[in-house]
Model the fold of this input.
Amino acid sequence: MATYRDIDKVKYLCDCGKKHPICWLYLCRHCFKLRCGDCLLHEVDSHFCPCCLENLPSTEAKLRKNRCGSCFDCPSCGHLLSTRATNTFIVNPEDPTKNIPKKMYYLACGFCRWTTRDIGIGDKPVATGGWQDLESPHLDRVTMLLEYYKKLSLKENSEKEREKFIKRRGHIYYTDKFSLATVALKRKALNSPSAALHDDDTTVLEIEPAEMVTEFPELDDEIFSTPIQLNKITTIDQRLSSPEFQPVQVNNMYPRHKHLQVRKSVRCKKCDHNLIKPDYNSASTKFKIQSTAMYHVPELRISNYNVFSPKKEKKITLTLSNPAIYNMDIEFSPVQGEDLFSTAKVDLPKKKIVLARRDEDALYEGSTSLENAFDDDPAVIVSRKLNKIIFNIGVTPVISGGEVRVAFVMRHSYKNVTLGLPSEKEEVQTVLLEHTIYAQLGQIQ
Ligand SMILES: [Zn+2]
Ligand SMILES: [Zn+2]
Ligand SMILES: [Zn+2]
Ligand SMILES: [Zn+2]
Done:
């Protein structure tokens, strides 16, 4: 869990110059560079409901205001509402003297016990889809504004196209020897969206401008004398979670349609290749392409909490783990150029370290240590187990108080193989990747 919790301790330098923990980074397998969220294009692949997992195309999701039609959230606590069935007795239409049982349904929150019965919504004879939506009091105004801005953008677009046409005309005049281009242009103009617009379509109707409220009605005297019953008034969170109604009284809260979520894919801004591509099926947790740095770049962690003395060298231990299915060669070197981050001198391992591959079978078999499998220098390598090594570095703080920080460069071999699919014919490309690492090692005491 240290990977996700102690994310400030060890950071890797992204190609754009920002420092991020490894769990926030991606590795572009085409540029061979680390990429952070800002260096990527985020694209929405599909919309889906996190509860019923229904997939929706983006146009339909937009029409439904990005909400699921059949799942509801509790207006009181935000937990998912579940449908409860209950038996009621109704008069038998064939024999009015007898009652027959009938199943009715209502929504209830399993967390705060809020139910649709609390606000007087009657039970429904069907389990799903019987819940009427409230109509927003500002619906007409919002529709009018939407129409207005749609027409305005249409008008602007058609004006832009007309301008382009006028600019191009001089050029056409000289080159068009056989008057074929004019025919082609006319045909193109007929097909273009602006051609479909007649003058009356592009005239934008003026709408009533919004009015500023300058005067407010006086508060009732009652408000100062009547004690407030907090259990009958909604909280700010409850009000703002349904922005179109903003109920003040608890009995005006209404079930909220569940928000849709998106599956997104990310793309490298430099080379346009996909770095993350999820499976289209919303029930699946698999990825078609997954290129997060954690699957390709060795992860460095600080083994212990360290306390330093000023100007005195201390050996500290670091852990490196290999996420890949091949053995990696690791080398360390100091940062080239100016280093404003470090507050200590660091003595890095001089020789190449071999990091054993990740082997899931060995993990479950409880397999042996690899102490003797590699030619390790005992002064550097403290211990080695499966795909992890613990090694020493010497750190001498150059400050007399405060935080001890070091920066260094780590180089590792990288093979462009797809996980689980060892390529047979293709020759696997091996490159050396270089990352700058910034580590906060501890404090001076
Ligand atoms: Zn970046
Ligand atoms: Zn749903
Ligand atoms: Zn609730
Ligand atoms: Zn790239």
